[in-house]
Every structure is written in C-alpha cells, then in structure tokens.
Amino acid sequence: MSRKPCCIGEGLKKGAWTTDEDKKLISYIHDHGEGGWRDIPQKAGLKRCGKSCRLRWTNYLKPEIKRGEFSSEEEQIIIMLHASRGNKWSVIARHLPRRTDNEIKNYWNTHLKKRLIEHGIDPTTHKPLASNSNPTVAESLTPLNAPSSDKQYFRSSSMPSLSSPPSSGFNPTCEVSDISNNDGTQVQGCSLSCKKRFKKSSSTSRLLNKVAAKATSIKEILSASMEGSFSASTSLFNGFTEQIRNEKDSSNATLTNTLAEFDPFSQSLYPEHEINATSVLGMDQGYDFSHFLEKSQNEDKNMNVEYSHDLLMSDVSQEVSSTSVDDQDNMVENFEGWSKYLLDHNDFMYDTDSDSLEKHFI
DNA sequence: AACAGTCTCAACCGCCTCGAG
DNA sequence: TCTCGAGGCGGTTGAGACTGT
C-alpha cells in the first residue's frame, strides 16, 4: 500500500514562486507564525501544496537566512563534517547558522564536490581517488598538471598560502604573476574566466590545506598529549603551537580562526630549504600541551562565536565515539573528543601517518 | 549574433521519522 | 501496540543564466 501524496488537489500551482505568492506567504506567517503547513495555502490564499509553502519559507523566505558566497570557514566546516557524517545536510546545516540544508547540499554538489575531485580526492570517502595510486597528502593538494615553472612560482613566499593553480581548466598561457594576491590586488592581463578559475581553485587549495592541516595537527596533538610532551619529531605541531603562541589578539580569536590560519603546506611557514620533517624550525625542546589547552579554554570563554564550535565538536564526538564527552560546554573536552575521532579513524581523510607526512616535507 | 554546452540552484518527489491519538 | 499524518530529509530535476565557439 503506497502512501498517498501529501497534496492532492486540482489546480495546485507548481514551479517558481511569484513575488505576489511570496508576499502572501510572508504576510501569513508574520501574522500567524510557522506550523500547520497543510492549512496555510488555503488560509493564505495560495494555490500551493503545504509542503511547497514550508520549503519556500524554510529555504528562501525565512528572514534570518544568510545567502551568498560561502566563507572559507564555512567551507571548512562543511568538508570536515561531510568527511565524518556524509550527506547529512541537515546535521551540517545545524553547524552553519543561517544556512539551509538545501543551500549547503547545492553548494556541495556544485562546488566543493567538484573541487575535491579536481584535487584527486574522492568526495564520498574523502580519500585519494583510486586512479591516483595512493597519492600522499601533499601530492593530493599539489597541482598535478601545472607547468613546473608555475609550481615553482607557487612555492614563492611572495604569495603566502597560495598553494595551487587550478588543476583543470588552468590556462598555462595565463601569466600567474598577473593574477591577484590574496589581498585583493587588482588582477591584470588575464581573461575574466581565467581569473575566476584561478581564484576559485587557489582558494580551494588553501582550504584543502587547512583541512588536512587540522586532521594531521589534531592527531599530532593527541598523540603527543598521551606521551606528556612534544618532541622534535612533532615538528608540524611545533609550528602549530608556535602559531598559537604568536597570536597577539587572542581575545577575539576563535579556535576555528586559529586552526584555519595554520597551514603546514604554506611556504611562509616552511621555506623550501627548511622543509624536512626532522628538523623543521629546529625545535628540539618539548612543548607543554597544557599551554595549548589553556589557550583554547581562554579563547572559548572570550570568543564571539559565529559558528557552533562547541556543538560541532560535541556533536561529532558524541556520535562517533563510544567515549563521548559529557560536558558539551567544555571546549577542551570536546576538542579531545573530535581528536579522538580522528585518531580512531586514521583513514579520516588522508593518510596521516607521520612517516608518510615526513616524506612530503623532505 | 546565434547556437550549443555547461552550470547553478530553487523546487519537487518520495521516503522516513516521530509524536499524537 | 498500532495507525495516521505532519514535518523532515536527501536525491533529483529542469528552467534560466552563463560561457565558449
């Protein structure tokens, strides 16, 4: 026995909503509130299915909905959550205030998914694509088909954190040096489409770098914390903690912002001649993990949360780990929960094995 | 200018979940 | 415990916009 359609009726309108219909719906909900969607069309004078009204309201008309381009932080959250949760758009949407699940789903399907594939990463499993014969993290994030001269260019410290030209659709005749830096300097001597592709893809590379950095760094953090201190071999984390130590205005910094700014693949952090995992930064002394935890706690207390960091951490950790945290407001514990997840799932996104990581930096 | 191919995203479809009775 | 139905969810579609030739 099949379920009957929610809306059976002659003359029900379908397709794009008109301004007039929008006004009627907004006016009705303004006066009567949400809910009772089945009755709303009739009461509001709309020839629409109640379900259609609900979707129109929740995905488009709701006043608090944020529209427009996704920020890099939002993209990071989407990728991280998708890696752990899959196509749970409503769950992901809960961590991105004012974004709808439909919008996130569309953005994933039309932008992020495509870009991950371009970088040789399976958007479903978040692992390197089989055809890439197990590329390493760095290889996955490095331009595979860019001219060597361009690769060299992107290693230049003159373009901090700009790590990759587009892996597809990249026009080798387009002079990279003519393209804008991240500070928004005017682009010159390059076609509009080229600029757009470049901007989009280079931003993706930075994003992927950041996500990879989080995965590897968090794993390092927890590994080291279990041992009590950090050794020189955890050079990646040394850079990470150093970055945190150097944060001058921690009062307004969020943990996400701090993490987002750490980019182990950035040449500004690791000049080419220093890229060697056993001697990066030349730090031999151990690091006290409590420093990081304390800072995280302070930031958590002070930060003006734009995104649901605590919710993000607790939600993920609780659902994927049997040793879930009890105190959802405790950022550190939640952070550890998320870290534990990463540790428990070594195949989280990439091969984060420290040996292979070292190889990337030699 | 015209056409074809591609992209974007609002909207729809059908199944699922869960609370009320 | 079972049934029903409203609301929620994820996958898919297709019209319009955009881009390339």
From TrEMBL:
GO cellular component terms, semicolon-separated: nucleus
The protein's location, in the record's own words, is:
Nucleus
InterPro entries for this protein:
Homeodomain-like_sf (IPR009057), Myb_dom (IPR017930), Myb_TF_plants (IPR015495), SANT/Myb (IPR001005)
Domain of life per record: Eukaryota
Domain named Myb-like is located at 9-61, 62-112
In the record, biological process GO terms are:
regulation of primary metabolic process; response to other organism
Please note every region of biased composition (Low complexity).
156-168
Principal subcellular localization: nucleus
Any one GO MF term held by the record is: transcription cis-regulatory region binding
Q: What is this protein called?
A: Transcription factor MYB28
Species of origin: Cardamine amara subsp. amara
Upper lineage is: Eukaryota, Viridiplantae, Streptophyta, Embryophyta, Tracheophyta
